[in-house]
Amino acid sequence: MITSLQNPLLKEMRKLHLAKYRREQGLLLLEGTHIIVSALGVHYPLVNVFCTNKWQLRYPEVWEKLQVCSERAVIVSEEVMKAIATTVNPDGVVASALWKNTPPPPLININSILLLERLQDPGNLGTIIRTAAAANVDGLWLSGDSVDLYNPKVIRAAAGEWFRLPMGVSEDLKALITNYQDQKVQVVATRPVATKTYWEIDFTRPSLILLGNEGAGLSDELISIADEQVTIPLGAGVESLNVAIASALLLFEIKRQKKSF
Predict the structure, then answer these.
(1) Which of 2, 15, 40, 192 would bridge 21 by S-S if both were Cys, CB 3.0 to 4.6 A apart?
(2) Mind listing the domains of the chain with CATH numbers?
(3) Which biological process, per GO, is one annotated for this protein (predicted)?
């Protein structure tokens, strides 16, 4: 059992709180039973696993699998667990995992792709990922100036679906969109002042949905190259919807039109 806060392995895990170090090491920080069980379920490559004695006794079968499926599995004290975790009240298990990049599939044979520009809130991104997976979206693209896709808060908010949805980060969204358009994918931008409502679009066609920053929305550059602009009608006096809610409305309208329930 590791009990010292000066343990070198503990210090390496604590560095994963920082995006810079996660990128340098190519590692993720996974926290919580549900997240780690989800990672096991898709055979995600785990490196180091740390749990408390109390957690190990509560989940003996999961612990047994973790010992087999990770490079190292260690029991630590409650104090050490609190130092490793980013949450205030960790449930007793934390792991590092290899940074596995699975971008959205090739342009052929897609139904729907979600593209997010300058998204900043990790909770919003995680919720959108969870929603996109539930709506059977083919994948998600994120602009390079958005919140870190590998942020532990994003992974937690996605509630296990982070591992299942193909996702990628692009530094050139305009070129990416143009590439989709060349493959006959319609590009639909969300905009408060658009004249069409989102249910007026034919989403039985392959579609790329553009959603923007929580406060500023989409950039003029991306709006200008979209094939369609749509709005979500709101009641009097309501300025906007949360971007995660907006994404859910559009993605499930696609699902409704395709009758894929």
Answers:
(1) 15
(2) 8-98 (3.30.1330.30), 112-258 (3.40.1280.10)
(3) RNA processing
